[in-house]
TrEMBL record:
Keywords: Disulfide bond, Glycoprotein, Secreted, Signal. PANTHER family: CROSSVEINLESS 2, VWFD DOMAIN-CONTAINING PROTEIN. One of its GO terms (cellular component) is extracellular region. Residues 1-103, 310-485 form the VWFD domain. The keyword Glycosyltransferase does not apply. Transmembrane segments: none annotated. This is VWFD domain-containing protein. It comes from the Eukaryota. GO terms for biological process: positive regulation of BMP signaling pathway. Pfam families: C8, TIL, TILa, VWD. It is found in: Secreted. The keyword Lipoprotein does not apply.
């Protein structure tokens, strides 16, 4: 479980604005509460529960509806119009579609399940648990609508062809909803039905109060809800430090309402001060600064001194890292656009094409060559420390213009274009591409757009998100070199 506050990753619990806003971990859930009784519960099983006070009657919009006590007008679009189609309703409220990693699992007839399959998934070893007489959730059925959760469970199981994880998520969703409503449920997990694994020094309990017995809870226990939730409870003598169960003397510090484990540090927003949690809850602060080639920034949840230039790398084991630090594996045989300036008209435009080819029968990875194109010049370089310009092999070093050069430095061939681009390819086939900070956000290719965000690094040329790195590389294959996918 991870939370970000103003974009920065934090450990739970977090208390902000003099206690007006609190986020705690309770069992396997994260709970956000405000002093005006807004509560959001979220857990790894994908359950989100939003509770709002009565003052919001008729004053809200979104997927949860308008809260006007009328069920018939809840599929309202952002435009104010009503729809009867669930897909249209959900799609219309989608936020950040370009950053979303979601895929459509179900395209049509999503809420149908043929009766044969429904009867199988409805058995008491599966979704039937929810409505089972004298079952673990018996006490809850009149408080949280069991039939609704049972039906949802059947539909989800049908869509997922009976995957056990989907069953467990459905049962956990009901269990959590019951517990959030203050109902005491009986243990429902068994070694064969949705076993729950816990970290070292902790064990599963159906009713835990993890929030109070956490290291940070010592000082913030009044932030916890009164309910208990299922989840992992630290063994006797241990406390939860937001990440693992530790003995009490290993508990960290609470600094500016934020919990820090022993040995961890936080940087001030200008990176000029670094505060570290030492033993005994003592926070030690000292001056800090970024070097000339670095700048202070918050990236992917972490505040740090970051290099101004962008670096994309490919190592001898086919591991690639994009400018924004997404890691992935390159296929052993392929030709793809590694990095290019998206705007073809710029003077600084370039395009780098990578050719990988397996040279032996074991199928090991080999980077054959990099083809580099600039306005008016094309260059090929290989790990054999050889270079071709406009298709002609040239002796090295080669100075092609005021800014463009190919040189040998130690065991590497280095292609440089002013301050914009530096391509370093060494004898063993390791590749580093450095680009200037000015190109941030204007890059195309597998190395990503260099906008300092990892979340959109799987973007294909058509602007859609790939499902994985392999698909990303396929989408950027260099179609001027070959037609079919290799
Ligand atoms: Ca309504
Ligand atoms: Ca990016």
């Amino acid at each position: 479980m991870e939370i970000q506050i103003n974009g920065e990753i934090n450990v739970l619990p977090a208390v902000m604005e003099n206690g007006k806003l609190k986020i705690t971990q309770e069992g396997s859930n994260m709970i956000l509460q405000t002093d005006y009784n807004l509560m959001v519960l979220y857990n790894a099983a994908g359950l989100v529960q939003v509770t709002i006070p009565g003052g919001y009657q008729n004053a809200v919009c979104g997927l949860c509806g308008d809260f006007n006590d009328e069920i018939d007008d809840d599929f309202r679009l952002p435009s104010g119009e009503l729809t009867s189609k669930l897909e249209e309703f959900v799609e219309a409220w989608r936020e950040y579609p370009e950053e979303s990693n979601c895929v459509h699992i179900c395209e049509e007839n999503c809420d149908e399940c043929d009766p044969m399959r429904a009867s199988i998934f409805g058995r008491e070893e599966a979704c039937g648990q929810i409505i089972l007489e004298n079952g673990p959730f018996e006490a809850c059925k009149d408080i949280v609508n069991a039939t609704e959760y049972f039906t949802d469970c059947l539909i989800d199981m049908c869509d997922a062809d009976g995957q056990s994880q989907v069953l467990c998520d459905s049962l956990q969703a009901y269990a959590t909803a019951c517990q959030a409503a203050g109902v005491k449920i009986k243990p429902w997990r068994t070694p064969t039905l949705c076993p729950f694994s816990c970290q070292q020094n902790s064990h599963y309990e159906v009713c835990t109060h993890t929030c109070e017995v956490s290291c940070a809870g010592i000082t913030t226990s009044e932030s916890c809800t009164i309910n208990c939730f299922e989840g992992c409870e630290c063994d006797e003598g241990y406390m939860f430090d937001g990440d693992k169960c530790v003995t009490m003397d290993q508990c960290g510090c609470v600094y500016n309402g934020r919990y820090m484990g022993v040995g961890t540090s936080v940087l001030s927003s200008d990176c000029l001060q670094s505060c570290t949690c030492a033993n005994g809850g003592v926070v030690v602060c000292s001056a800090n600064s970024c070097s000339d080639t670095q700048y202070c920034d918050l990236q992917n949840g972490e505040r740090a001194c970051y290099e101004k230039k962008g670096s994309c790398t490919l190592d001898v084991r086919a591991n690639m890292m994009t400018f924004d630090k997404l890691h992935g594996q390159v296929p052993f045989t392929s030709i793809f656009d590694l990095a290019s300036v998206c705007d073809l008209s710029l003077d600084t435009w370039f395009r780098l094409v990578a050719i990988t080819q397996s040279c032996n029968t074991e199928g090991s990875f080999d980077l054959s060559s990099i083809h580099a194109y600039f306005q008016g010049v094309s260059i090929a370089i290989t790990p054999g420390l050889e270079a071709w310009v406009h298709g002609k092999k040239v002796p090295l070093p080669a100075h092609l213009s005021d800014s463009l050069s190919v040189t040998i430095e130690e065991e590497s061939i280095v292609l440089k274009n002013g301050d914009t681009l530096e391509v370093i390819l060494n004898k063993s086939g390791e590749l580093t591409i450095n680009v200037s900070p000015e190109l941030s956000g204007s890059m195309c290719g597998v190395c990503g757009n260099f906008n300092r965000k990892i979340s959109d690094d799987l973007l294909r040329p058509d602007g859609k998100q790939s499902h994985n790195f392999h698909e990303l590389i396929q989408s950027w294959r260099s179609s001027d070199f070959y037609k079919c996918s290799l």
